[in-house]
Amino acid sequence: MSLIFLSLLFLMVYFIQNYLFLTFISKILHIKSQPKTIILLSTLNAILNFGITAVFVASTFWAYVLITALYIVEARIFLRATDTVELSCALMVPYYLISISFCVSAIMSLFTNYSLFNILGSSQLLLTQRILTSLLVSIFIIGLTHFLNEEYSTALVRYPDRMRIFCLLEIAGLVQMLIVSNLFTVEELSLPIIATIATVGFISLVIFHIGLFTLVGVELIQDYKVYSNSKLLENMYRNILIDKSERTIEIDCTTGKLINYVFKNELQTSLIGSYYEAMTQTIVESRVHPEDKELYASKLKLSYMVMSIDEDRRSYDVEYRLKNDYNEYVWYKDFIMIQRDTEQDTIKAIVMTNNIQLEKNLLFNASIDHLSGLYNKKTTEDLITQHLMTHDSGIMFLIDIDNFKAVNDNLGHDFGDGVITEVSEKIRILFKPTDICGRIGGDEFMVFLKKERDVALNIEEKAAQICEVIHKTYYKEELKITISSSIGICEITDDITTFGELYKSADIALYASKDRGKNTFTIFSQNHV
Predict the structure, then answer these.
(1) Residue 230 pLDDT greater than 50, yes or no
(2) Predicted confidence band of residue 240 (pLDDT cuts 50, 70, 90)
(3) In 3-state terms, the chain is what percent helix, strand and coil (to 5)?
(4) Whether 499 contacts 384, CB under 8 Å
(5) Is the dihedral of CA 520, 523, 526, 529 positive or negative?
(6) What is the dihedral of CA 485, 486, 492, 495, to 10 degrees?
(7) Domains of the chain, with CATH numbers?
(8) Most Cβ neighbours (<10 Å): which of 25, 218, 270, 357?
């Protein structure tokens, strides 16, 4: 077989092996790496390994040392983890390469009657050995990718003691294989040497996988226990909870895994045993409304549930908006119940999810003034009162439309309704979505501007803007009617703290604006009393 063909085949196979390894590491450590970076590192690695193979033909020991060092450097560049995790991941491929190459070399020696030394001395045989080794390593990495899926990968960071033991096991195995690799320098064909090389390679692979099992085996056993108890929610709560909820999930807060998951009365077995917070993170990133992401993430994380039960708070609820299949945001409400099992030393939580969009629609319709699209009088008062219970700052604007009666009398009530809608939209634009804007009478509006006490705000500038945008002249044939606004303003002080006091003071200031000729504003002070 052509030496050039074998060389190209080696580069291609080694590239694939390294690409699979970096993709595997990205998956289990949740590294958001660019495909271009993986391709670049894989190409560079293949070229460097080809060079090491060509240069250190006579010294297997130094070739293996350099390959190991190369992967350690690559891990330091590519990974963002603890030193132990980085080193453990870096040593995986060299460990596989050396142990498998031992087995492949021993088999090739038996079939070709060449000594291990002579195999290394033949370019074709050496490249063949390297290609077969890389192919087998690629198969093992694919197997690891399937075995160590995302639900087990957190063991790498959650259990550092296990990871340190596994890392020491890798180092000990590599040191042993590097020492034994000196047997490749023996020129004679020796069955005891071949047997030793094959045995060391095989046992090293077995030890590696035993160590890997100790790293994640506890997770596997826990998974089996979780699955064996997955009927618990179905038996205890099906009639009480599941039938009444769109989605019901049960979580083991100690392990962070889903014990049960029922959606629309169907048990979702594929999700049982998966990690709860990985699922919620996906929901936050892709479906939760931007304004609700922080609330959803904080109230539905495991640490908050554990804190709640520690504070003897066994239940709470949270409302949020979720994007549906039609890219529309719909209101949902989660009711969370937490229970501590002192006998098993575990904490379990049940999350019941219901669509409350209809309820929200009814509440919205009851709270909105339909002509203006702003809050109605009662809702405006309630929202401001509720805000004042927890805050000691803010500014109230009472806005009255000057000459609006003339619009209705001369241009008609339908035209007047259009003016109300137009003025309402202008007010909405001038204030933030978090401020409270309402229509409290036919031509009277109330705005509560939320602000922190120590944050400076130019009230006169804001009031002047309102006067400017509302001022407008309407024409009908030769008839000309101009509307403007009279504004009364009152800021929360040590003496003015309730809604009633704010409203009364702003109303006094409003009438002062009317007395001054309209189309102006007045900021309440004790001089108006």
Answers:
(1) no
(2) low
(3) 60, 15, 20
(4) yes
(5) positive
(6) -170
(7) 3-216 (no CATH), 232-356 (3.30.450.20), 368-528 (3.30.70.270)
(8) 25
HEC-encoded secondary structure of 138-177: HHHHHHHHHHCCHHHHCHHHHCHHHHHHHHHHHHHHHHHH
Long-range contacts of 31-38 (CB under 8 A, 24+ apart): 31/78, 31/79, 31/80, 33/78, 37/78
C-alpha 133, offset from chain centre: 39
* Residue position matching structure tokens 């980085």: 86
> 5 with 127: CB under 8 angstroms?
no
Secondary structure of residue 261 in the 3-state scheme: strand
Among 237, 220, 216, smallest CA distance to 228 is for 220
pLDDT > 80? residue 162: no
**This prediction's pTM:** 0.43
Handedness of CA 181, 184, 185, 186 (dihedral sign): positive
What three-state secondary structure class fits 390? coil
Q: Which two tokens stand for residue 24?
A: 């595997």
The DSSP call for residue 215 is H
Contacts of 436 (CB under 8 A, 6+ apart): 375, 380, 383, 384, 387, 446, 447, 448, 450
Q: Identify the residue whose tokens are 């495909």.
A: 35
Inter-CA distances, 3 with 85, 108, 516, Å: 39, 18, 100
Task: Measure the CA–CA gap between 441 and 446, rounded to whole angstroms.
Answer: 9
Q: Which two tokens stand for residue 52?
A: 């090491």
- Is residue 327 scored above 70 in pLDDT? yes
Question: Residue 521 burial by CB count (10 A; 0-12/13-18/19+): exposed, middle or buried?
Answer: buried
pLDDT in tens, 15-58: 888 888 878 777 766 565 667 777 887 888 788 877 776 666 55
Residue 161: exposure state from Cβ atoms within 10 A (0-12, 13-18, ≥19):
exposed
Determine contact, residues 30/59, Cβ cutoff 8 Å.
no
Query: In this model, does residue 323 exceed pLDDT 50?
Result: yes
Torsion, CA 74, CA 77, CA 79, CA 84, rounded to 10: 70
pLDDT, tens digit (0-9, with 9 covering 90-100), for 95-133: 888 888 888 888 888 888 888 888 877 878 888 888 888
Q: State both tokens at 427.
A: 């007010």
What is the longest distance spanned by two Cα atoms in the chain? 118
Between 480 and 70, the higher pLDDT residue:
480
From the CA atom positions of the chain, what is the Rg in Å? 36
